[in-house]
Amino acid sequence: MRTVAAALARVATGASFRSTAALVRDQAGRTRLAPQRQRGRKFTDPNRHGQLISDWVAVFAPVIWQAYAPTVWPPRLILDESGFRASAAQPAARGTPLFSVLGAVGYPYPGARPVVWRLEAVPAANTAAWQGFLTALAGRAEALVTDGGSAIARAVTAAWPGEPAPRLRRCEWHLRRGLAQSLPEPIRDDATHPVTKAMTGCLTSTTNWARFENTLHQFTQEASLPGTWSWVERNRELILTQAVDRDGFGPHSIGPLEEVFRHVDNVLDDRVYTMTNKARTDRLLMLIAADRNGWVDERAWAEIIRDHLHGRDGLADRQRQVNDPVTTPSLR
User: Fold this and answer.
1) Which uninterrupted H or E stretch holds 109?
2) Rounded-to-integer distance, Cα 245 and Cα 122, Å
3) Do the Cβ atoms of 103 and 121 come closer than 8 Å?
């Protein structure tokens, strides 16, 4: 069990299946000699065949995840998605959308550190996918921060109907970026300009927002700001509504989840093109989330796996039972 747990821990922290397979074989003294290279023919290293590690992830990642993961949504939640496309490693398909990962970072109590609550791979980040994501756990969040996507808003209404409805808040970082981009470049790039200075904290209270609008009025005569005023008119009601009941605990942006997605992107890297199986991808995401939450512990994981097998007379789930039919990949 220690070997399996060590392999899962290594994958969780970003190692590839192939490099992990080679290490497992080496530590077990079961390395294979690579075939001699022939002219015009390249042989792959048999020690770097990642299927065994992939099967261990498929069978045991859910066991590890269930030992730690929450089963009820927290009061405060961040929701967002990250889309993955074919990279330069696949020139013919470069830029083609492949799949998306839905993510949730939660806060079990005000001031708590962010916890990766769920990650799930889906063919498309539409309303139906989000509704399934939200109904996978019990309960409902009281307040959610998003980037303002309509698919999430519709899914929240469908998944968590009734009163009191969850409070949907727009990410303040995205709002501030939108406001900054609406300004003429000479003002936007001048940190000493009164309008730019008035933007600091303008989303955090109704007083600060009023101060920003007053400053904007003062400089409208000497600088044409139709784009900025158009943005203000579209977003004023939202900003004031959020400012009224804003508290100091947050979250106020989707930054913590975007950081998780950057890590996921680094781990998956060029593998995304070959990731066509939803169940296997979800189980890898469980390990990545476990690492982000600080749950990686080889000794503890070995005990979890041992206890799981003991309760099943030493039998694990049959390997590859989550495989897709060849012609119908579940993540495309």
Assistant:
1) none
2) 34
3) no
- Residues 155 and 135: beta-carbon distance below 8 Å: no
Distance of alpha carbon 307 from alpha carbon 314, whole angstroms: 9
Q: d(Cα 306, Cα 278) in Å, to the nearest integer?
A: 26
Element (H, E) at 82: strand 76-85
| Distance, CA of 64 to CA of 74 (rounded, Å) | 21
Sorting pLDDT into bands at 50, 70 and 90, what band is 72?
Answer: very high
In angstroms, rounded to a whole number, what is the distance separating the alpha carbons of residues 132 and 297?
30
Confidence of residue 5 (pLDDT cuts 50, 70, 90): very high
* Confidence (pLDDT) at 10: 95
Sheet holding 143-146, edge to edge: 115-122, 97-107, 76-85, 143-146, 167-170
Is the bond leading into 164 cis (omega within 30 degrees of zero)? yes
- In angstroms, the CA 169 to CA 247 distance is 12
**197 Cα distance to chain centroid:** 33
* Local confidence band at 243 (pLDDT 50, 70, 90 cut-offs): very high
C-beta of residue 249 within 8 angstroms of C-beta of residue 111: yes
Task: Tell me if 243 sits within 8 A of 227, measured CB to CB.
Answer: no
Return mean pLDDT, the chain. 90
Tokens (6 digits) for 43: 């042989």
Contact 273, 46 (CB under 8 A): no
Residue 255 tokens read as 């930054």
Report residue 159 as tokens: 């998944």
Rounded mean pLDDT, 2-7: 93
pLDDT above 70 for 29: no
